[in-house]
Design brief:
Blueprint lengths: L6 E9 L5 E9 L5 E7 L11 H9 L4 E6 L15 H4 L4 H15 L8 E11 L1 H9 L8 E5 L10 H10 L2 E2 L10 E2 L1 H9 L4 H9 L3 E6 L7 H11 L4 E6 L17 H16 L2
């Protein structure tokens, strides 16, 4: 087996739109030339050091990529932590705020001190769950994106009943409890206003005009997001630019847990399919 390259891990802190820090973790192999960039966008209650994400990032970096994991400014994670500790920040989060955080992150990687490390003409966004929806939104106004990888994707942000929305309007927030920790996570008014401003077909319409390669991967045992949403996105992209991979027995995280308890056959298939597609897609 060929020796794996040494992976360098670096940490970057950036100010967001209102100076709340964005926390970036970079995994990259040593190289004497700029490398393609892959940016990981976690979903709801996700973060860079959730379960399998560091393993996924390092595996992709070993194939000659710079991989950046983003902890959004209002993800609730601070100081590159391994859990959500600032519940108060979560209520300020929203899809467009996360879009802004990613734009600021890409802007930072455009600076001269990264010019010899990152090839910004080759940028892939890898979104998981709600992060896939954010990845799609980013392509609407950021032409730096070369391709998308959507894991366990959502095809819409508004996933709430009319009763939930009415209560949300009245109280100003909506509770999304974390069954793992027992914490209550509240989404705020900004989140609600944004998702109500999007049309039902917003993500599909945006993806239709992206017109660049898209890989969609989902598990056939996903009970968190209906698998039909990934299928809808694939129909939108079409077979010319799109590829879809269904992981047999895979759930929403392909069997991965937090804290990290090791890989699974389903996760390995998702990673291998991702790496193979990245190496084949220009």
């Amino acid at each position: 087996m060929r020796n794996q390259p040494e992976i360098i891990e670096e940490k970057i802190t950036l100010p967001s739109e209102d100076e709340i820090p964005i926390w970036l973790t970079v995994w990259r192999p040593k190289a004497d030339h700029p490398l393609p960039l892959v940016v990981l966008l976690p979903g709801t209650k996700g973060f860079t050091r959730w379960g399998s994400f560091p393993y996924i990032c390092e595996r992709i970096a070993q194939t000659g990529k710079v991989v950046v994991g983003v902890d959004y400014s209002c993800s609730g994670v601070v100081d590159f932590g391994s859990d959500i500790t600032r519940i108060d920040l979560v209520e300020k989060d929203s899809p467009l705020r996360e879009v802004g955080d990613i734009k600021l992150s890409l802007d930072a990687l455009c600076k001269p001190d990264w010019a010899d490390k990152v090839n910004l003409s080759d940028v892939t966004l890898l979104g998981h769950s709600r992060g896939s929806g954010v990845a799609i939104l980013i392509t609407e106004n950021d032409k730096r994106i070369s391709r998308l990888i959507l894991w366990a994707a959502v095809s819409r942000f508004n996933r709430y009943t009319s009763e939930q929305i009415e209560k949300w309007k009245e109280s100003g927030h909506h509770n999304v409890p974390n069954t793992r920790t027992g914490q209550d996570y509240f989404l705020g008014r900004r989140f609600l206003d944004e998702i109500l401003s999007f049309s039902e077909s917003k993500l599909k319409d945006t993806l239709r005009f992206f017109a660049r390669p898209v890989l969609i991967i989902y598990g056939d045992k996903d009970t968190s997001v209906p698998t039909t949403e990934s299928e809808e996105l694939f129909v939108t992209v079409g077979p010319h630019l799109g590829k879809i991979v269904v992981i047999e027995g895979g759930d929403h995280t392909f069997g991965a847990k937090h804290p990290w308890a090791g890989t699974t056959p389903q996760l390995e298939e998702a990673i291998s399919s991702t790496i193979e597609w990245l190496n084949q897609t220009k």
